[in-house]
Amino acid sequence: MNWIIRPKLICRWRSEFENYQGTSFPGSGKAKLTKEESEVSSLKKELAEARMERDILKKQFTSFPRALGDLPVHKKSHKYVSY
């Protein structure tokens, strides 16, 4: 099979290499990112994780009693502690 590499493709490869240096041909579907793009991507991941943690904590705290006066002293007693 004959493969033809067009000059336009070689020019594109050259410009990608000049812009991205060692990451210009990463393969395996990995994105070609500059330092700034990589940092932005990392910060977006951190933000998504922080939002997820916040949402989990919000859900947990809504299930807790709202005031300490609503907590029973122990199971056998029907008296409630008021602070």
UniProtKB/TrEMBL annotation:
InterPro entries tied to this protein: Homeodomain-like_sf
Record keywords, A-Z: Coiled coil
Residue ranges of coiled coil: 33-60
Name of the protein described by the UniProt record: Transposase
Organism: Labilibaculum antarcticum
